[in-house]
Amino acid sequence: MTLLEAVAIYVERKRSEGCFYGKSEKDLLSLSNHVGKSSLNRVTARQIASFLDGPKTSPFTWEKKYGLLRSFFDYWLARGEIDALPLPAKRRTSHRAFIPYIYTHSEIRALIKATRTSQRRRFCRIDARTLRTLFIFLYGTGTLVGEAKRLQVEDVDLKKGLLTIRAHHHNRPRTIPIGPDLKKILGEYLESRLRQGPSAGHFFTNKTGESLNVSTLSATFLRVRRQSEVERCDGARYQPRMHDLRHTFAVHRITGWIRHRADLNRMLPALAAYMGQAGIGSTERYLSLTPERFRTQLDKLSPMRRKKRWRDDKALMKFLAEL
Prior knowledge:
Blueprint: H1 3-16, H2 22-35, H3 45-52, H4 59-78, H5 105-118, H6 128-141, H7 145-150, E1 156-157, E2 162-165, E3 174-177, H8 180-194, H9 214-227, H10 244-259, H11 264-275, H12 280-284, H13 295-301, H14 314-321
Antiparallel strand pairs: 1-2, 2-3
Helix pairs in contact: 1-2, 5-6, 5-9, 6-8, 6-10, 10-11
């Protein structure tokens, strides 16, 4: 049996069990092309290692492909088609915790300023005003990009200064207040849309009035970030993302509270509710991302140093229940 025939049989078996197996099939076919017209029982560990160590293969991808190949060859080993697993030694991987990027105020201003020039090309599907308003909205509310994308015109109550964020996956539905500055910016954006015709449906739209496409947004943000020369230099694999505006919102709010000696025992649960997080644990992780110069104050104000927990505050619990 050739390796290619073994791949076809294995993929068919997996799909009969209800697996989609699209990407996995491509990886197995890539292995077959890499090895050439070889019998299944003549594939060597050196050939597998050469395939796994291909160019631009991240540690995560290497480990994922290794697991796929192990399952594939285990299948044929159990059926007597091969005598041993032709796999190289597995790498020892050191998993580095992912750390989100926290933008500085000057970097946020640079991103917003870059929207004026980055969208001048004819092929740009999102106009500069929409992109600028979206960036300010994400930083000013800490909402997820998907939540902003799904926001409807009817969800924005500019008279009361309230936004209704719809439920999605693990995040809870919520109604959140917004400040006068953001309220003014959203109002001006909505007025500009009304001048172009009746405004209904999604709040943020592209030039043709359709909802924003995630892939287009990602490509657009990449262009704006490069133009504004915002990069991370801490050795991390990932460059700043649009989603990091949410993390920046949280860290900047906490930093401001620390500067004004606010009671974090009260404020962190409010922040968690505002951002739609299920528990305070997700919000407390932002404490480690605050600037070093606030650490002494943070140790004094942190809920971990307090005997009375936030759930014991009846007034706060009433406030959170009304959000």
